[in-house]
TrEMBL record:
<protein>
    <recommendedName>
        <fullName>AbiJ-NTD3 domain-containing protein</fullName>
    </recommendedName>
</protein>
Length: 340
């Protein structure tokens, strides 16, 4: 019996403990799978050539590291949970991992998928609308392919696959460069600023939404664009009829509540965070409380959460207070830390 076969036998007989999803548990399972599946020389080939992971450390090379664990940590050090989950999925799908350790990765992924997140990857991202509602048609209902047949000039459509480890501002900058035809020698910062101005324009003169957007944008300082993007005015549902048309037909309201989300962050292709900024129109008619509006709002929140989204709300009044930008910045710090 070889060493690997013996290890498989031991792992198969070992009692399984309940798996806990965290960055630490995924990192440990990934490291153990690499360490016990590959030799030191093969490990470097798998990481660099098969998985094509970039080596981020400038003052040394992978070959300089003596131990397997140091090589793995050199490639993945500082990765947050969504990136580790994406790597685990690739290992299960693309590599021949030692049996028992493959079971550990598979169990963690199953628990991650069961415990949270949206069940299917994102397909359509229509956002930053700053004019009339776009009119959509199903070009291919079988494949859920949509087309914008009118008012497409007033919104943006991200037409690239959403990366498994989330949609970063770097992804958006590259997409915007290609979409706008900017020269290759135009700096990422300049492209990012142009995109920032376009996204910001979709918020109009809504001061509280602008405060949230600008506070998050300061996180991109010093060219640090490789972090999840804050995407404004994202279409969640589409009702082909306008409110005016429904009233003319004697219908009350829309069958699809909250057609647009104020902000969306894609921490991974399935882990999605929605931010809503509530003005009085969400729960009142003028200065009079409206229980119907409030009940519609909380019902939609429940539906989103049950679908796997996380929903966080800011009250418009709290964003008008002195020091609101600091409060929002602390929220984003805590959210980012929670996602690690």
């Amino acid at each position: 019996m070889s060493g690997f076969e013996f290890l498989d036998a031991v792992l198969a007989d070992a009692p399984r403990v309940p798996v806990k999803v965290s960055s630490r548990s995924f990192r440990s399972a990934i490291e153990e799978a690499f360490i016990h599946t590959y030799t030191r020389s093969d490990l470097e080939i798998v990481l660099a050539e098969e998985l094509r992971l970039p080596w981020p450390i400038a003052d040394c090379k992978p070959a300089d590291e003596k131990y397997k664990r140091d090589v793995i940590q050199g490639y993945t050090g500082g990765w947050d949970l969504p990136r580790l989950v994406a790597l685990a999925r690739r290992m299960v799908a693309e590599l021949e991992v030692t049996g028992g350790l493959l079971d550990d990765l598979t169990a963690l992924l199953a628990e991650y998928d069961r415990g949270g997140g949206v069940g299917t990857p994102a397909k359509n991202l229509i956002f930053a609308a700053k004019g009339p509602k776009p009119e959509l048609v199903l070009r291919d209902a079988v494949n859920n392919d949509i087309a914008i047949v009118r008012n497409g000039e007033f919104c943006l459509v991200y037409d690239q696959p959403i990366p498994a480890d989330g949609l970063t501002y770097s992804n958006l900058i590259q997409w915007w460069r290609e979409r706008q035809g900017f020269a290759d020698d135009m700096s990422p910062r300049a492209v990012g600023l142009d995109l920032h101005n376009r996204l910001r324009a979709s918020l109009g003169d809504n001061l509280v939404e602008l405060l949230v957007f600008d506070t998050y944008a300061r996180r991109y300082k010093d060219g640090q664009f490789d972090m999840p993007a804050l995407i404004p005015q994202v279409y969640l549902h589409f009702d082909p009829a306008t409110q005016l048309a429904r009233r003319a037909a004697g219908q009350s309201g829309s069958p699809l509540a909250r057609q647009r989300m104020d902000f969306l962050i894609l921490f991974s292709s399935r882990h999605r965070v929605v931010l809503e900024v509530d003005g009085k129109q969400h729960y009142a008619n003028g200065d009079t409380a409206n229980p119907t509006l409030y009940s519609e709002m909380v019902a939609e929140d429940r539906r989103l959460r049950l679908s796997g989204y996380e929903v966080y709300r800011f009250g418009g009044a709290e964003l008008m207070k002195k020091g609101a930008d600091k409060m929002v910045a602390e929220f984003f710090d805590q959210l980012a830390e929670r996602m690690r």
